[in-house]
Design brief:
It contains 10 helices and 14 strands. It is an alpha/beta fold. Helix 2 crosses helix 7 and helix 3 runs parallel beside helix 4. The structure holds pyridoxal-5'-phosphate. The site of pyridoxal-5'-phosphate (PLP) has 12 residues, from helix 3.
Length: about 350
């Protein structure tokens, strides 16, 4: 067996210990005589798995009592529609546009009400994050929407807007559990699991009770109504059972390894190795303004598409995969989530130096 350094933006690397535990428990979970995949979601043993996953997540982040935790399906993409469907009571919301994922969220929200784009990084092709201090909110807005870490462009908010009484809704898909989270600043936090937390198929939501209690403008189909999921402990229908189990193992791994403070420190250390090199390189250029850089998705490029392609070809001999930038942006991208070991980042930088040396 040989594991390789996988720099994928998602689905992405998971901690090796988690995969080993899952392998050991594959055929017989804790004496149940079956795999977690084969269990009824209504069984006592599965109820224990989902309850423990939620309790561990609450402990890890410090989620206040007045927030519900949901494990749903449909990815982050389904939330682009469910958020306006559930929360656009006055029929309008403020959106901060910081890249591809917010553009998709804006497009969906427009189907349900008035969308005010109160700031946008589009004019400079999303190389930076708008200044949150100068934002002006519509006092009648149902919520303010943002995406914390922009997976494709590689930018990240370093502070959050103060929206006063207006709930702040945040897509944290690609930075969830990479650092401590001050949950009370938000009305809703959500994240697709496959970037930093677990396998594809699980979407985690943390919703404040008062936001949940809002009556949608119209009755909603069952699966699309957040309240129904909350009232049924994410068991209104069959939840993504195996995915939730793996997320639970990741939460335990995080708790056993110093929690989110330790993760932040490790992620800062890893990202600094890459950015320090990029800032001094004469061949590679980082994409995002220094103050707004993501710790999770590091975007950069060489002077030409041809050289980018050569770099990717050469990466194969070191068994580095998924370093190609997103199809919409081109260039190169190294996603270095929680599970990427520091040795993977060091090895990548060693290859970049070698490549630069060879192309002087
Ligand atoms: C990947 C990603 C999404 C889309 O996630 P799906 O699970 O594919 O729907 C949305 N937002 C962000 C920030 C992402 O990184």
């Amino acid at each position: 067996m040989s594991r390789i350094y996988n720099f994928s933006a998602g689905p992405a690397m998971l901690p090796e210990e988690v995969l080993k535990t899952a392998a050991a428990e594959m055929l017989d979970y804790h004496g149940s005589g079956m795999s977690v995949m084969e269990m009824s979601h209504r069984s006592k043993v599965y109820q224990g798995i989902i309850d423990e996953a939620e309790a561990d997540l609450r402990k890890l982040i410090g989620i206040p009592e007045n927030y519900k935790v949901l494990f749903l399906q449909g990815g982050a993409t389904l939330q682009f529609a469910l958020i306006p469907m559930n929360f656009m009571v006055n029929g309008k919301a403020d959106y901060i546009n910081t890249g591809v994922w917010t553009k998709k969220a804006i497009k969906d929200a427009k189907l349900f009400g008035e969308v005010n784009v109160i700031a946008s990084g589009e004019a400079n092709n999303f190389k930076s994050i708008p200044d949150v201090k100068s934002l002006k909110f519509d006092k009648d807005a149902d919520y303010v929407y943002m995406c914390d870490n922009n997976t494709i462009f590689g930018s990240k908010f370093k502070e959050y807007p103060d929206t006063g009484d207006i709930p702040l809704v945040c897509d944290m898909s690609s930075c969830f559990l990479s650092e401590p989270i001050d949950v009370k600043k938000f009305g809703l936090i959500y994240a697709g699991a496959q970037k930093n937390v677990g396998p594809a198929g699980v979407t985690i939501l943390i919703i404040r009770d008062d936001l949940l209690a809002r009556t949608p403008r119209n009755p909603l189909p069952a699966y699309l109504d957040y309240r129904l999921h909350a009232e049924n402990g994410s068991m209104y229908n069959t939840p993504p059972t195996y995915g939730i189990y793996i997320c639970g193992l990741v939460f335990k791994w995080l708790l056993a390894n110093g929690g989110l403070e330790a993760r932040k420190k490790a992620n800062e250390e890893k990202a600094a190795i890459l950015y320090d090199y990029l800032d001094h390189s004469k061949l590679f250029t980082p994409y995002v303004d220094k103050k707004d850089r993501s710790l999770m998705n590091v975007t950069f490029r060489t002077p030409s598409d041809e050289l980018d392609a050569e770099f990717l070809e050469g990466a194969k001999k070191y068994k580095f995969t998924n370093l190609k930038g997103h199809r919409l942006t081109g260039g190169l991208r190294a996603s270095i989530y929680n599970a990427m070991p520091i040795d993977g980042v060091k090895a990548l930088v060693a290859y970049m130096k070698e490549f630069e040396e060879a192309h002087k």
